[in-house]
User: Which sequence fits this backbone?
């Protein structure tokens, strides 16, 4: 665990988008080839979301497009290649929230190719916020793609179950937060949980306010790290509360929330956030975090070893 670190990015002329690919891995455990692959995927995710925003699309479409892009890769702990339970099976979670207060989430699905699409469907097609393991018939009725559970199981994740320590691969949850041209904010997060977790374990990602939050008057937040700490601190909502009730700026709120909610409790992780002005931040106290942003400074991607500009 490290002291809280923060990157701040000024707002663009009209829109802002920030994505993350997880936090937690020790730098010594990150293979340069893997780091490069993660960065390439983050570039693709930023471009997918940015294309929507640049063409007048809304924040919800942008964050869902970015997260879908990352779920389809096997480098991250989301969608294909997600972490496996102690029984070697996938249990996937996701959530979306709009700044107007609508939210949807899914947990423990082992068939949804893109859990973020299911979370959005729960929000748009049901009166509920969170569903556990909805059946294939329901997903198909919503137009969501399904796969056999073995689609999500990769050899890399199988090997990780045999390791004595999970520290080397504690990363990979993905998320995105955006502010669109009309000032609307949205957030989305997707994960496979923790390697070797007990079947049925649920982390912070699908719990609105813990790992995912959005409010047009304050900010949108997506979190990654050891979920139990984020749940106990209701961390994503805490960033919003510090802005709304304590009058903090987004950088102040993000830094203090990570410090008080994670560092002071012995936890580690990261969050990304965008406020109503379009200012974007990445805040973390974990050894590493992968992120990319499109803001007033242009498009950048960062991770274990360096930060680089995107075209």
Assistant:
């Amino acid at each position: 665990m490290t002291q809280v670190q923060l990157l701040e990015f000024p707002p663009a002329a009209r829109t802002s988008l920030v994505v993350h690919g997880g936090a937690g891995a020790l730098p010594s455990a990150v293979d340069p080839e893997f780091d490069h692959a993660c960065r390439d995927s983050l570039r693709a995710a930023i471009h997918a979301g940015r294309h929507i925003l640049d063409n007048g699309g809304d924040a919800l479409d942008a964050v869902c497009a970015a997260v879908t892009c990352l779920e389809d890769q096997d480098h991250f702990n989301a969608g294909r290649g997600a972490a496996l339970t102690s029984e070697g099976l996938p249990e996937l979670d996701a959530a979306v929230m709009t700044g107007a207060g609508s939210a949807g989430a899914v947990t423990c699905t082992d068939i949804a190719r893109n859990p973020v699409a299911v979370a959005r469907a729960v929000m748009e097609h049901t009166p509920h916020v969170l569903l556990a393991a909805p059946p294939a018939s329901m997903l198909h009725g919503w137009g969501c793609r399904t796969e056999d559970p073995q689609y999500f199981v990769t050899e890399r994740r199988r090997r990780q179950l045999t390791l004595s320590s999970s520290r080397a691969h504690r990363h990979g949850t993905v998320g995105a937060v955006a502010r669109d041209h009309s000032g609307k904010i949205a957030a989305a997060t997707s994960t496979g949980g923790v390697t070797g977790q007990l079947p049925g374990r649920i982390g912070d990602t699908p719990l609105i306010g813990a790992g995912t939050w959005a409010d047009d008057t304050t900010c949108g937040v997506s979190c990654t790290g050891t979920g139990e700490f984020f749940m106990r601190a209701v961390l994503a909502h805490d960033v919003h509360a510090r802005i709304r009730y304590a009058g903090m700026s987004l950088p102040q709120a993000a830094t203090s929330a990570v410090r008080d909610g994670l560092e002071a409790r012995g936890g580690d992780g990261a969050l990304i956030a965008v406020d109503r002005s379009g200012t974007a931040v990445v805040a973390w106290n974990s050894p590493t975090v992968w992120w990319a942003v499109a803001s007033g400074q242009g498009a950048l991607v960062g991770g274990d070893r360096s930060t680089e500009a995107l075209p």
Helices lie at 32-54, 59-71, 115-125, 136-141, 155-161, 227-233, 235-246, 250-261.
